[in-house]
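TOKENISE THE FOLD
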Amino acid sequence: MNKGLPESLKVAFPDVIPHTIPLDVSSKIIRPNWVVGFTEAEGCFFVKIAYNKIKGKPSVKLGVQVTQHSRDTSLINSFTFSFNCGRVEKHLGASAVNFVVAKLSDITENVIPFFDKYPLIGSKAKDYKDFKTVAKLMRSKAHLTEEGLEEIAKIKSEMNFSREHLLSSFIFLPFFLPFFYKYFNYHVIIKF
């Protein structure tokens, strides 16, 4: 998170006046490739399975979320114009805001066509592929059957931090930790 200049630099360079670059959201629609990159870095495609007490059975929720510091609320608001859907929520307990799309029709009619046209190419591409598969299953009402629900649960169990390559990386992390501390800074370890 960018918190500005550290005190030591402010003291060393007292005549420097910070220049704030205003975000131009006058067009309201930001460049698609920028949205893709921002989603790759700060976004999450998710599937939630919860027990619905009223219906007496599990329910499936699908969503995409992009989070940013609350000072960038106008930037996050521009996502609603780019996708023509979604909402911006203040993150409870933190100074952050979330752009969220959770309505299935918005996901299938706006979000999926956007990312099919402007594909993710990083690690989130696999999560998007799984997310898209679950959306198709939900559109065909497969989530209302026991078999469909089991398939969605299996897909969900392999998304995001549950991916096999991530788990295998963390298993060997204690072995490599001294090496990383010696030759790299702390931030490399966190991102690894």
